[in-house]
Amino acid sequence: MPQSDRVSLWNCVSTAGNLCGRFLAGVDATVTLNDLASGSCLGGRAEELRGHSVLIATADQLSAALALIELDGVASRLVLWPAGLPVEYLPFVIASAAVDSIVSDGTIVDADFTCSPKIAPAACDRRASHATEWILLTSGTTGRPKMVAHTLASLGGAINGAGGTGDRAPVWSTFYDIRRYGGLQIFLRAILSGGSLVLSSAEESTADFLNRAGAHNVTHISGTPSHWRRALMSPCAQKIHPQYVRLSGEIADQAILDNLHSSYPDARVAHAFASTEAGVAFDVRDGREGFPASLIEHRGADVEMKVEDGSLRIKSSRTAARYVGQEAGVIQDAGGFVDTGDMLELRGDRYYFVGRRDGVINVGGLKVHPEEVESVINRHPHVRMSLVRQRKNPLTGALVVADVVLEPSPDSAAQGVENEIFELCRRALPRHKVPTSIKFVDELAVAATGKIVRRHA
Amino acid sequence: MSIRSEVLAQVNQIAKEQDKRLAPLTDDLALLDSGLDSLCFAIIVARLEDQLGIDPFSNTEEGFPVTLGEFIKFYENAAK
Predict the structure, then answer these.
(1) What domain range is B62 assigned to?
(2) B40: number of CA atoms within 13 Å, CB side?
(3) Does residue A238 belong to the interface with chain B, where contact is any CB pair within 8 Å?
């Protein structure tokens, strides 16, 4: 059998040693890495997936984590289906990523290969024969997910060796789903830096998760500012005693940084900038919002950054390779930079994030496209036009609000119409997309392009 | 209207709008056990900012309130 010198997750795990002491903990089960050395979450059938394009679609994150460890270097492509993605996109994803095999726990889709956290004894050939392509799904502008191609090298580029400080191996945890970029970073940190991992679950309350993380003595934990705002409102926030607290995925404001510092005085609090396309760019460890202006155009490091037209551009070995599928667009410009679409403002010697250029409203980590809400409001017969915008909120980052221009009509009593618009939106939209207030205005500004003037701040 | 009654009025109103069943509103009720989720509290904070003209969450040095009583106190202190 030909030997391969390719790097794979399993290679990294099996050469690191101390497999008995390292674990992956889900809600209902805990698996040690040593269990995987002589067993399989796939009933020993991983070899049948060698060279295949595999969709991993499970409700349970632990099953998915185990399948990733078994199949990296074996499958040619791994497509990660995150919790909460509407199943109506399955055929689109399967076709676009040329998926030929499905690994599932039977919850989301019928499985060709069943995986479960019950490790069955099996002799596995985990020789790494492929530089497996990892496909992450991220929300696209049309609502259909964009499929972003990475490799283990680009995903793991920001992770340097042992992450532990002191003599104890790190126990990582994250509020994120590990099938999304922010969570995947934590999964890989745990696996590649000799640690363990406590996984979250969409089904579990914040309090239960914090209790479980506390019981496993979590040392390193990450989440979005919204995750953390919710966590700090729980009395169970004191059940964990982390050495390291990480924020990413949203703008980390000074209030949340200060609150984390006072809740966890012994922890280092860092906020990171990363995106699915651009990869991890940097983290900020001085406890202040924004980042030092000196980070920009600081060459020589493995990441190069610049600000153009107000938005952050990133060039690094950690950026995604490309989008998969048709009409997918390009990730890097000709110079190799990824435009993050995140708008920056320079104040003094620091840059601050002010919002998204494309105007997506981020309600506690959930994206809202103003246009889709407007299209619902505009269905009301008395509505002429509407502009949906964000209102800043200290708990969810933003809320959705609407400015509405009514048809001039003697019988459109505003109160009745307002209730009808709310009702229309509640029927047609998920809760976070329903405007929380409606303001009736006389007119909305329209630009020369014929489009409503949007102010994204 | 006192700050306490304004807060309680908004809690009841949002529970109704968001179709949530409220636990009995006592001062020691943990906010996370109230039956309201983060989106509900975000809306309550926005409405209270409109009604009272204050948003104590935006620049706080203290920790976040955990119980309903602390939540009310949070607003009462900010209004001082």
Answers:
(1) 3-79
(2) 21
(3) no
